[in-house]
User: Which sequence fits this backbone?
């Protein structure tokens, strides 16, 4: 009988709890740098290397999914969400979940091709960045 490979149990450390909490509180995809900034508030001294290792193990466990945002790199979000798309701010690089799926996107596949899924990312300016760019209103007229 061949020996079975054993998987070492993942330790539940203060840093790992801070990283999970960061995703639960953010409720949106986070880049590695954004995750590090948020989780560092909960776990002082959290190193970037620890964040990278934790992301890898959380992806391997199936707790996180990788979201590739063209021009912005990899973001991560909780696994198991319903099908949805993303909005990426071109100014501050925040990525936000969009509810549902647009039925506006229609494509014709070449003969014999079979689609198994799709991913849509909408780019623009988030509300905070748009507000910063709005000219001040005149008062007293």
Assistant:
């Amino acid at each position: 009988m061949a020996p079975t490979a054993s998987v070492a149990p993942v330790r539940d450390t203060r840093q790992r709890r801070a990283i999970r909490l960061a995703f639960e509180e953010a409720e949106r995809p986070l880049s590695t740098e954004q995750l590090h900034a948020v989780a560092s508030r909960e776990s002082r001294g959290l190193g970037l290397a620890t964040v990278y290792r934790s992301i890898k193990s959380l992806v391997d466990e199936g707790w996180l999914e990788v979201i590739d945002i063209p021009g912005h790199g990899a973001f991560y979000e909780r696994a198991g969400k319903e099908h949805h798309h993303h909005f990426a701010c071109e100014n501050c690089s925040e990525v936000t979940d969009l509810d549902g799926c647009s039925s506006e996107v229609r494509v014709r596949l070449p003969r014999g091709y079979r689609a198994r899924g799709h991913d849509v990312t909408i780019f623009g300016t988030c509300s905070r960045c748009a507000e910063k760019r709005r000219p001040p209103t005149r008062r007293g007229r």
Summary: The chain has a mean pLDDT of 85. The radius of gyration is 20 Å. The chain has one domain: 14-133.
